[in-house]
Amino acid sequence: MTKRRRGKAAVAAGRVAPVAAPRTQARYLRDTDSGIIDARGVSLSESRDEIRRSWRRAAAIAADLIHNSGRLKGAVDQVIADTVGVELQLNPQPDLGKFGYSPEQAAEWRRLVKVEWKRFAWSPAEVDLRGKFSLPQLVDTALRAYIVYGEVTGLLEYMEQGERSRYGIRTGTKLNLFPASRLLNETNEVEQLYQGVWHDGNGRPIGYLLEERLRGVLRRERYPSRDSSGRQVFLHVFDPVEATDVRGISLLAAAIRKHLQHEKLDDVTLQTATLQTIFAAVLTSASPSTEAFEAIDALRSTAPAAADEFGAALSGYMLGSLDRAADSKLSVSADPTISHLAPGESFDIKTAGTPGGQYLPFSAALSRDMARAIGVTYGSLTMDHSNATYSSVRMEVSTLWPVVMRRRERIAAPICQAVYEQWLDEMIGTGRIPFKGGYRAFLRDPAAVSWAQWQGPAKPTADDGKSAKASTERLSNGTSSIAIECAELGLDADEIFEQRRAEHEQYRAAGMRSPYDPHPGAGGDSETVAEDADEQDRRRAR
């Protein structure tokens, strides 16, 4: 009772009890006063579960957006151009030393493989099961599928000799690509089937469940991952988010919402621009309104004489204005005409006041979000280079180029490598490409023989002259090599060497100065250069 009385006395005396200060916190996800973090309802699940739930919907929306957007269609083409260019060029890197090859013999063997591979890859009848597309075209379609579905699916098949004779082709190795939508998104964890892929106890894929259409009838078919000899049968390429992922998801999944917002912004802006072509013509006049004439009628009840005098004056003014207006013309039509207006009149044209100054910055922000998700530069997506400088373009390309290289190595190159391994196995097995020790020796370590690198287009530059000077500087100070610099340009160092040697010998045989001879002043005087050339001729003669 004593404490309560003291509290009441303190309040009565005007003293307020102190409010406890908020407790300080240091933790993750500490919310703001607005509760913006608590307002975002989220749950935590594995990546493969999220992909399974959203795969079909994301692929359908992505395909629809690309079909109806010239900007996205161009972005897809840009992805293909950056990743593979015209084609990914084969650069065999076999370890032939263990098979008894000398360096010269290994170089000759690589040259033969390149020639035969080029003929095979660029022949639709040889490489494509359907006989329609070359391998570079099939890789293009695979990259388009990767953007829409997030994965590439296909079969590596072998056509027997009897069937090959019908088409007049030599090789049996064939690539059969098909949309990833045929790979059923079904899960039965009791059978270790997840999203249409069967796994063994270690989580390795051993089979795939496809839905195929045969003469208008849908049927389900199971295909093995590899055949009894360990050769790859099913081609399934995707970029995982987590190590437990089974399938990929559309590359546009993270940017779908932003792109739809951008489309809405463009649609509203277009409607506003259409309204701007329809203007409102407003004729403002100082002529008396209806209220003025009602005031004259009220004045007649109190002062008839004054009302008559004022009415006569007003009538005279109106008649004069009408006579003046009769001589003028105002026409708003296909052939607009405006002449003199009556006294006190003005003519205004009202237009829409939007879009305002925030449209372009907001549109650019949405475009940058989409460009980042797809993996292209903002300039290549929008074709807007208005504020670009040499430094900004160089930094933009340098930042994005590792993404391009990663996409080339993770998505495009595995497709080519899978076909190359099957093709090389067949070519050595049939003897069309000779190999020391024969096919049996090849089977001892086929991975060492079929190892290869795949070179794509060169990295874009904002200034070719500065890039060439930088390449020359790297070669001169010993921090690079011809092979590295050729790879940067998307060229094969071996092919460059063979071509330069052939051209050099052709010029020398014709008695002409070779363009590959050292230039006077670049490493000595002209007499020294001539003596070096003569010495080279004498050595070749010996």
Automatic annotation (TrEMBL):
Q: Which Pfam families match?
A: Phage_portal_2
Q: Which InterPro entries match?
A: Phage_lambda_portal
Which residue ranges are recorded for the region named Disordered?
454-477, 502-542
Q: What is this protein called?
A: Phage portal protein
Question: Which organism was this protein described from?
Answer: Pannonibacter tanglangensis
